[in-house]
Amino acid sequence: MPAFAGGAAEPPLADSYYALLRRGNDDEGAYTTSTAPWDDVSLPVAECELPMIDVGCLTTADDGSSPEAEAERAACAAAIARAAEEWGFFQVRNHGVPQELLEEMRREQARLFRLPFETKATAGLLNDSYRWGTPTATSPRQLSWSEAFHVPLAGVSGSGTTCDFGDLTTLRDVTREVAGAMSKLAGTLARVLAEALLGRRPAGERFPEGCDETTCFLRLNRYPACPISPGALGLVPHTDSDFLTVLCQDQQVGGLQLMKGDSWVAVKPIPGTLVVNIGDLFQAWSNNRYKSVEHKVMTNARTERYSVAYFLCPSYDSPIGTCEEPSLYRTFTFGEYRRKVQEDVKRTGKKVGLPNFLAQT
């Protein structure tokens, strides 16, 4: 089989891909490269521009006490809630995360991921949070052609267990700044979305309850160039198991796609903006008003792609609850949800998610 490792820094994604392909070809009713179940990834996909929302009125120091400021904030909140209901995704500008900081984050990510594969996999960097491919994959279609550091925010912020950045001291400083800025933005957006459903009742400064720097995550992603593209996906279709995700996608290299209706659409990269999407927990809390939408990342045959994602997660023992009764979902905690997702993926190779927690009818 061909080797596409491309150097000591690359994870053995090609080896995994071809091992899974051989496994499939050994099974009854097997697929081949000419009749593969991922043929649909090469179909033309329309490019879209997500709802664009200027959130400067939420992120600036203005206290919003004047009638004009209050009206601007109300209009902004309504636009955010509408996008969460109709798309499950939206883009924000004037978000409070400096562009130069995000550019520095991109450079530091490149330095990090250029380290030798063995160093990334075994040296305990960033709380031993390095991941590559899909360990639970049973077919090439389930393999994500990517590598990442999925870092608990407590380690990044320095408030919990000391996070080992090795010799990458500038990465440590930049990562802390990015995590802090994204955390502030995510908290603001979550409260705005909650208040849109609660009417006059305020959601509170700590909404969602149980979400703080000990429970949230920052994920540094890299999608290597994939010579077998589009035979492999950068990240397989999924929904996020959190309340809210804030994403800085690559400003030049596209690849993010989401499900709109019954079709995939490609998200156009727009410099200076961040992508925000609703997670499963917010869909449950909102009684399905807000949509946690399936999305994926496509590979690129020639160019690598980087992104940074912030995940707003509660503690494992936090009950998710609902904004109104009767609830469409039975009572569950985030820990129960995570365990069930992991069990389903291990058993079937697929996440089931919220349907497991529907209330009995």
From TrEMBL:
One of its GO terms (molecular function) is metal ion binding. GO terms for biological process: gibberellin metabolic process. It comes from the Eukaryota. InterPro entries: DIOX_N (IPR026992), IPNS-like_FE2OG_OXY (IPR044861), IPNS-like_sf (IPR027443), Iron_ascorbate_oxido_reductase (IPR050231), Oxoglu/Fe-dep_dioxygenase_dom (IPR005123). Its EC number is 1.14.11.13. It catalyses: gibberellin A1 + 2-oxoglutarate + O2 = gibberellin A8 + succinate + CO2. Residues 212-314 form the Fe2OG dioxygenase domain. It is an enzyme of class 1 (oxidoreductase). The keyword Iron applies. Belongs to the iron/ascorbate-dependent oxidoreductase family. GA2OX subfamily. This is gibberellin 2beta-dioxygenase. It comes from Zea mays.
